[in-house]
UniProtKB/TrEMBL annotation:
Region entry Disordered, spans: 290-310
GO biological process: protein import into nucleus
Organism lineage string: Eukaryota, Metazoa, Ecdysozoa, Nematoda, Chromadorea
Protein name: Importin N-terminal domain-containing protein
Extent of Low complexity compositional bias: 292-302
Main localization of the protein described in the UniProt heading: cytoplasm
Sorted UniProt keywords: Cytoplasm, Nucleus, Protein transport, Repeat, Transport
InterPro entries reported in the protein's UniProt record: ARM-like, ARM-type_fold, Importin-beta_N, Importin_beta, TPR_IPO4/5
Length: 310
């Protein structure tokens, strides 16, 4: 099968006609993993002028590597493995379309997540060099790419956390302060995923704790309409998984959550996110909340209602 035939197959895999799509899926599954990967990379190169084709190819690449990583990787020789790693880094450096860059970053994160060795070291030196460059860059797009990779692979730094933490903190503060809502929200998701996955490292917890006010400001600045993932929903995950990070910021956490409850009281589906945050905080830190008289005296009546507003 040549690259043009394979590109047609990819298009049929997305057909709205069930029969066409089913036959295409059967044909696609008959292609072995390494061959699929090679053909997908060829498609990316062949259709350099088509954003739609390249976007689709990247989705399929990430999907096949996520599903069949071990089976594919063990069949490749050292030269082919290095070729793939070098290619994806080259792709993200030279790509100019931000939507494509985002998908390449997701692909890099997927690959990186499989290349942490048993000792906790990142065996892919190239991705560490990319992260180092992006985190130290003055370019906001470069910073954004680093955060996308970190969001997808929170353990990307491996055993070299200490080296990356100072520049990471600077980038997180910078990106959470930018007017770009997408970058703000990505920074929140990245730092929370990073903290949750590295919760045994004291310096990571210290970093996350120091950035709680910044994260709360993003929660205030954004809404579910701005970002379907919801920064407040991500913060609820932090409250549930790492409540110790909130100890010194409890009043601010409660104030933001109550403000969100009031602001979105007429939209139960959106108001539920702030309810989740309150639930996480109250579950993990009930005794501490009770001791805060300032909060007890200013509770919002809306908290007495359930998620449906009853």
């Amino acid at each position: 099968m040549d690259v043009n035939q394979f590109a047609e197959l990819i298009q049929r895999l997305q057909s709205s006609d069930n029969d066409i799509r089913k036959k295409a899926e059967e044909q696609y599954e008959q292609i072995d993993g390494p061959t699929k990967v090679a053909l997908l990379f060829e498609c990316y190169n062949q259709f350099a002028n088509s954003t739609d084709v390249r976007s689709t190819v990247l989705v399929f690449l990430r999907r096949v590597l996520s599903r069949d990583w071990d089976a594919i990787w063990e069949k490749l020789n050292a030269e082919n493995k290095q070729g793939i790693l070098s290619k994806v880094l080259e792709m993200i450096v030279h790509e100019t379309d931000i939507s494509i860059k985002k998908k390449i970053a997701d692909l890099i994160a997927e690959i990186a997540s499989n290349l942490i060795d048993d000792s906790g070291d990142m065996s892919w030196q190239g991705v560490l060099e990319l992260m180092d460059h992006c985190l130290k860059s003055d370019d906001l797009t470069g910073n954004y790419i680093a955060l996308l990779i970190l969001r997808g692979c929170p353990i990307v730094f491996g055993s070299r956390l200490d080296h990356f933490l100072p520049s990471l903190k600077n980038v997180l503060i910078k990106c959470m302060a930018t007017p770009d809502l997408q970058i703000k929200s990505t920074a929140v998701r990245a730092v929370i995923a990073f903290a949750v996955d590295n919760d045994e490292d004291k310096e990571v917890i210290k970093l996350m704790t120091s950035l709680v006010p910044n994260v709360l400001q993003v929660c205030t600045d954004t809404s579910d309409d701005d970002d379907s993932d919801g920064a407040l929903g991500e913060f609820a995950e932090l409250a549930s998984s790492l409540p110790k990070c909130l100890n010194s910021h409890m009043n601010q956490v409660l104030q933001v959550s109550c403000w969100k409850q009031r602001k979105e009281r007429d939209v139960p589906s959106k108001r539920y996110r702030s309810h989740l945050l309150l639930h996480g905080v109250c579950t993990k830190r009930t005794q501490e909340i009770r001791s805060r008289s300032s909060f007890s005296n200013s509770r919002d009546p809306s908290l007495l209602y359930d998620r449906d507003g009853r």
